[in-house]
Amino acid sequence: MKTNKLFATMLALLCVIGISGCDKEDTEPGTESALNTDLYFEADMNGKSLFLPEGKDGYVSEAGAYYGPAKTTGCVSRQAMRLKGADMRKSLEVSFIKWSETCIKSCSQVEEMFKVSSYTFGNLETTSDERVIDGVLIRYTDVDGKVWSSDFGSGDQTGSSFRIVEHISNTKDKNSKKITTTEFSAKLYDGNGNKIDLTNGKMMSRSVVCE
Q1: Structural domain that includes position 14
Q2: Could you say which residues form the signal peptide (predicted)?
């Protein structure tokens, strides 16, 4: 599998704020540049509407995979869906996190992470002896470049929800295996006591990087 250099900057950031000791990113770059204007992220952020469609102001939808060592043993695998601008500001990433003895890379294993179902929220920032908390992770980078995450700070997600409502083959381009639509609400934290209430969230994105 090829390494997508477009993800290098994001990986470095995620290694700092995400998996301690993160050592590898494995992504599958597309070979086509055509945009799919059906793909988007929308939500109310502290009551203010935000709509980011692919093709507007340089925004693109990407799928990615990350692998890193767990705190004790095994591997933390992340499958990511991202809607981002050219400089990563005002972008959103949804990741599905799972710990296992070996990294999850085969298509059959990865597909087990994408079910039309409700999900609990995961946590990479746990300070306990737990490896990580499996589940979904939402990270938002605002216009100033500040990263807000569902697992920063207290990570409290009381009243939040996340659901995959559709998971279909990507027949429009070769930039991912699947197209996944999600609906969610969450509390995003900056780690300094500040919070964004994300409500009415919906994302339709390229997804699934596998071998």
Answers
A1: 5-207
A2: 1-21
